[in-house]
């Protein structure tokens, strides 16, 4: 069973979301746009590794994911 995280309503009429969000910017390749080999945080992880991270975040109960102001390819993978 996944842990229960506190929730809050998103906006005035929005759905309930977890009060703790997941910042997905680190899943994107930021540094080398052409080579797609580096991120802001180091070497770009494989899609398989990135899906494992997202699966774990979801399993932990976090349902509020933020892809940042410049979503790059973190939005695509989500």
UniProtKB/TrEMBL annotation:
SUPFAM superfamilies: NAD(P)-linked oxidoreductase (SSF51430). InterPro entries: NAD(P)_OxRdtase_dom_sf. This is Aldo/keto reductase. It comes from Lepraria neglecta.
